[in-house]
């Protein structure tokens, strides 16, 4: 069983993440108050705790998951290219997985080697399109639907 274990958003570009225990997620704004939540293929980003721990192990340091700047952190699910087009169901919310969240130069600025460590095996997470409005909460079950 997979679980939503953390929720974050960026209220202002290039500012720290804001963490919440519950969030409204909408088709028009993604995670409510997120700077990047406009409609499109990259409305919400989701990262796997297990894949993040692999990154930290490779870097020999424990970085907070928010260093990656993803919106949602899930446990019990690792992402692969085969997941593109599938639906993530988190509570009543449905997200379509649209692709890989490619690491950028900002990751290297955050920590030396982070960009390269995120590159293999979809460790940086996935991008998603919001299919319906919903409220999500830490602890919600996460289902991957074909």
Give a brief outline of the structure.
GO terms for molecular function: catalytic activity; molybdenum ion binding; pyridoxal phosphate binding. It is built from three helices and eleven strands; from the N terminus they run E-E-E-E-E-H-E-E-E-H-H-E-E-E. The chain has 146 residues and is of the alpha+beta class.
Describe this structure in words.
This is MOSC domain protein. InterPro entries: MoCF_Sase_C, MOSC_domain, Pyrv_Knase-like_insert_dom_sf. The protein is α+β, with helices and mostly antiparallel strands. It has one domain (2-145): M1 Pyruvate Kinase, Domain 3. It has three helices and eleven strands; from the N terminus they run βββββαβββααβββ. The model has no long low-confidence stretch (mean pLDDT 94).
Binned strand content: 35-45%
CATH class: Mainly Beta
The number of distinct helices, counting runs of at least 4 residues, comes to: 3
Outline the low-pLDDT stretches. Answer: none
Which architecture does the CATH hierarchy give at level 2? Answer: Beta Barrel
**CATH fold name:** M1 Pyruvate Kinase, Domain 3
Global morphology? globular
The structure class reads alpha+beta
Q: What number is the mean pLDDT?
A: 94
Q: For this structure, what is the CATH homologous superfamily?
A: PK beta-barrel domain-like
What's the number of domains? 1
**Which H/E pattern describes the elements?**
EEEEEHEEEHHEEE
């Amino acid at each position: 069983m997979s679980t939503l274990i953390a929720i974050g958003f960026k209220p202002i570009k290039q500012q720290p993440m804001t963490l919440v225990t519950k969030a409204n997620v909408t088709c028009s704004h993604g995670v409510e108050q997120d700077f990047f939540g406009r409609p499109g293929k990259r409305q919400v980003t989701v990262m796997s705790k297990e894949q993040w721990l692999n990154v930290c192990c490779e870097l020999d340091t424990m970085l907070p998951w928010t260093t990656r700047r993803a919106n949602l952190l899930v446990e019990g699910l690792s992402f692969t290219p085969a997941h593109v087009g599938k639906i993530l169901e988190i509570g009543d919310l449905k997200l379509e997985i649209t692709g890989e969240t490619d690491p950028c130069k900002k990751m290297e600025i955050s920590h030396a080697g982070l960009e390269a460590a995120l590159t293999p095996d979809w460790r940086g997470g996935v991008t998603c399109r919001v299919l319906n409005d919903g409220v999500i909460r830490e602890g919600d079950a996460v289902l991957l639907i074909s």
